[in-house]
């Protein structure tokens, strides 16, 4: 097993895995996010260099799309606490063949290990119980239970970590 920093040589494998997991493309978004301030990404490869999973994020700043969505959902004191010096976890995906082996926890731990921000924030679907359980076991707290970043009938939860 190899843990690497995400680089452009891994983009095709990340695209393929993301498409299998979420049935959509991440390529354009990843290439854009890769240029953001504070971008940090990790990938976990098998002994045969098969991508087991990846996670990435960046410094959350005013003017970014998701930062703006989150800002609208938070009271001024919540914004001050959670978003003014924040690392935004954008994606975490593990190949279904490699789930329930601790890889998501490894990826999240490594992703946040050297982040020099006061807080980290992420969102996940309210009904994604395995993700929520993982994050809660790692010390994440619920910042807001119902958040609708896109489709009105697909609620998300905003979670934060100091």
UniProtKB/TrEMBL annotation:
<feature type="domain" description="N-acetyltransferase">
    <location>
        <begin position="1"/>
        <end position="162"/>
    </location>
</feature>
<dbReference type="InterPro" id="IPR050680">
    <property type="entry name" value="YpeA/RimI_acetyltransf"/>
</dbReference>
<keyword id="KW-0808">Transferase</keyword>
<dbReference type="InterPro" id="IPR000182">
    <property type="entry name" value="GNAT_dom"/>
</dbReference>
<dbReference type="InterPro" id="IPR016181">
    <property type="entry name" value="Acyl_CoA_acyltransferase"/>
</dbReference>
<protein>
    <submittedName>
        <fullName>GNAT family N-acetyltransferase</fullName>
    </submittedName>
</protein>
<dbReference type="Pfam" id="PF00583">
    <property type="entry name" value="Acetyltransf_1"/>
</dbReference>
<keyword id="KW-0012">Acyltransferase</keyword>
């Amino acid at each position: 097993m190899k843990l690497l920093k995400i680089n452009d040589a891994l983009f095709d494998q990340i695209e393929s895995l993301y498409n299998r997991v979420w049935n959509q493309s991440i390529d354009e978004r990843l290439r854009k996010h890769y240029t953001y301030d504070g971008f940090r990404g990790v990938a976990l490869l098998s002994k045969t260099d098969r991508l087991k999973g990846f996670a990435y994020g960046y410094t959350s700043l005013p003017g970014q799309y998701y930062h703006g969505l989150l800002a609208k959902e938070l009271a001024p004191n919540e914004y001050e606490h959670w978003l003014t010096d924040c690392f935004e976890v954008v994606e975490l995906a593990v190949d279904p063949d490699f789930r329930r082996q601790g890889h998501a926890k490894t990826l999240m731990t490594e992703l946040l290990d050297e982040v020099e921000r006061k807080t980290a924030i992420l969102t996940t679907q309210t009904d994604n119980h395995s993700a929520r359980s993982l994050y809660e076991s790692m010390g994440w707290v619920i910042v807001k239970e119902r958040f609708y970043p896109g489709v009105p009938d697909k609620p998300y939860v905003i979670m934060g970590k100091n």
